[in-house]
Design brief:
By secondary structure, this protein is an alpha+beta fold. Helices cover 42% and strands 18% of the residues. Among the domains are: 43 residues; 150 residues, ibrinogen binding protein from staphylococcus aureus domain (ibrinogen binding protein from staphylococcus aureus fold); 138 residues, no CATH class; 255 residues, no CATH class; 103 residues, no CATH class.
Amino acid sequence: MGIEEKIKEIEKEISRTQKNKATENHLGMLRSKLVRLQKMLNQEKAKAPTVNEEAKDEKEEKPKDIPIMITGVKNRFSSLDIIAMIHDLKTLKGMRVVNVYNIDTKTYLIKLHKPDGKAVILFESGIRIHKTQYDWPKQMFPSSFSMKFRKHIKQKRLEDVRQIGMDRVVDLRFGDEDRACHVIIELYDRGNVLLTDHNYTILNILRPRTDKDQDVRYAVRERYPLELAQYDKKIPSASEIVQAMAKAKKGSQTKRIISPLTNFGPALIDHSLVSLGFPPNSQIGVHLQANEMDATKIHEAILFALNEFDKIRSTPSKGYITYQNVKKIDGSDMEKFIEYHPMKFTQFTGEDSKVLIKEYSEFSEAVDEFYSKLDSQKSEKRALQIEKDALKKVENVKKDHEERLKNLVISQSSKKEKAERIEINVELIDQALLVIQSAIANQMSWEDIEEMTRQGQEQGNEIAKSIVGFDLKNNKIIMSLPDTFDPTNEPMNVAIDVNLTANQNARAYYIDKKLAAAKETKTLQASEKAIKSAHVKAQQTLQQVKANVEVLRSKKSYWFEKFYWFISSENYLIIGGRDAQQNELIVKRYFRPSDIYVHADLHGASSVVIRNPYPGKDVPPKTLNEAGTMAICYSAAWEAKVISNAWWVRHDQVSRTAPTGEYLPTGSFMIRGKKNYLPTSQLVMGFGIIFRIDDESIERHKDDRKSNLPEVEEELIEEDDEEFPDVKVNVNINDTKVDNEYVVIQLGPTNQTKKKEVSEREKYLQEKKKKEQEALKAKKEKKKQQTVKGKKKGKKENKNEDEEWDKLEKKATDIIKEVVAFQSHPDSDRENEDDGSDYSEEIVTVDEIKNMKIEDNDSDEEEEEKNTKGPKVENEEVEDVSDDEDDEKKDDDLSIINMLVGNPLPEDELLGSLVVVAPYQTLQNYKYRVKLTPGTGKRGKAAKQAVDLFLKEKNSSAAEKKLIKVLQTNEEVARNIPGKVKVSAPQLFAKKKSK
């Protein structure tokens, strides 16, 4: 059923429905529905296309010129872009690969380094490759493809960058001779990324495929077919151009038809055509015909393009971005990037051009700027659409209510006029009613009454003539009532109830008019509320959109966010490692001489470092206790609900080298001297919001995190003389340290998703070490054969040493078994640490391994010398792995943490928000906080519950709510919560009580 049919049905139902108090609501609903349908009908009519024959004829005429139309955003490289980019990438030759990261499954970053600077190459399969200066969001865990890159090209130099033939394929060569590896990026079609050896044998491939046309298989262990690349520049002949034009549809753009015949890309072809006098975006069959003469002109344009192509191939190019200014709702301009090019094309510089141009010093800079702003521009475009939709909703509400009010006013006027007509024609109506009532009293049917009325009309009876219709279901007759006071007015059809008198009918209409007036008043009030509500919702939507866009622009990740972190009550930055790799990174890269190392004798305890920005000044006890709480809560004690003690040592007590130079596993450290134990920590953490403020607001918060306690020398609890199991063998027995030494040893696998692959360098070192050990063993055997004297005595001593060694080895094995059993605890269900990804550490004393079996003096000295050199290489390898992109900023703690406050003031300018998880006592002065204790709730649900509670805070400012609301969509808000939790907060209890 169409809209018009529905309108007719509703109108009939309205006319048939008897009007009284019982049917008032029903009639109101019908009228509202009728208004909506009429509105829909009007909209459909407005949208219906109208054909203008004159305009159609005009379109068929040949236009003199065509303005540039922007059809979309450029989304991939052309051959011209590649040859321009090769120049920029060649400036990185000689730089060494530090690491490889993946942004997503198709986009990768290669970080390069040399003594005087850093650089990053970004490439996306099938799309682009360029240098980048932006901090792109990397995946938390590297993909297997990234790990393969790291294994083969890490620590190798970038030796060469080239384009393979004239194809849209870039070849990056890392290393030289037989150790070289090639990273091949295909930037055409669906794209591909391949890693090959020096012979171009494929080691890894992003998208294995088979080229059926060339009968070539692209897969691991297959050779990459360099011979299939096109090495010649394609220059079509005039006849080939004519054939291509003949096949093209009329109106096709010339550059799109000619571009596949060359290597130059459509933009350069169009530039050449415009330079030779053709209009921009010239069309086949309109500006150019498929004949020899026009084909010759196009051939000249192609030769012109070849000349420009060779110029770009031989010299570095500047970069250019074309863009348009789009008007926003508030009238301000928003830049919309369209294309990037390595030269300023003529078609974009003419008077008719609808684009603006930005110039950059190099092409790579332009491409980097283009893609970095692309996402934010898309977000702004979506925001603009949301703004329009929000304002459109307000307008729709206004129109709907205006329509309703208009109908009510018309209804009142109509009812008043009908009542007045009844009053004017009282005698006529009463006579008609008397006739109808008499007929009903004589038990005449309605059909007979209608027939009687028709006969009366034929006979010229005035009463019968005034009756123009019957509403039998509602016991009404329709009478045509004239205006006797003003004969110029048309007679009006009025429904008269046969059960009432004329005056009673008039009164009923006056009552209806009064009800309509009352309804108008109510509708007016409701309309004001509805429009106000719509305005409020629209403003909230606009604010949220604006907040999201602002946060997208101003989102700044601090270097410490990748670790566990918080700011102590006394303004010290405290960081802790999430796994063995991060523990290693923290100690090697972020542990300064003035800092404090905090740890706990618990499985999985984090290596915590208190960053002390005041050299020569001791860290206050309160901060030490808070760091100790952090170390214990980020361990297995949280899941096991066991409280314990943490301890701290100074920088000079922590070492990565064992006494004999023996290699320590990743995340393991030597602790020399005494450990300073802290009071028992409770398993209570807090989840809060910390805000970033501007520089002007910092002064107002200078005393927020100031120590209130006098500096008292902390009472140190010396460690007990309990024995620790021993797992280290090669120890220098001549070490005469008075204090004991400890090793924080890695016992289990780290929480990486996959086992770290061994690099070629490590393989080489392992093979070298194996050969040295074999040579040493052969030397020992030879010396043993020469030794005869004192053999029996030696046997006895060796037997005693073997027994002692067996005891210690058994003890170490028991410790490891206990740790493994602890790992399999049923409650240890920490998110992001599934599949047996927990790691563990154990403390072992060095004094207990003094009496191990010792080889002869010569071999011992050789072994010690070898082991002393060994870890140097290993440590360098770890150093390379643990690169950090914020080296310049990591020592400037105070300038960062002073901008972060937990209790903002109304006059503060808020720039952003962060989630912080810290010991609960640290968050006492925070405006937004909840308590976390070990429980059964999931981390994500707990974080969502906490953020929802913060949004319901009555004393929140609009700026605070805006920044907290942005956190609702942040997937990492629960990242630092220790494990399964229970959330406690006064607001939460109040909410439960009210229920």
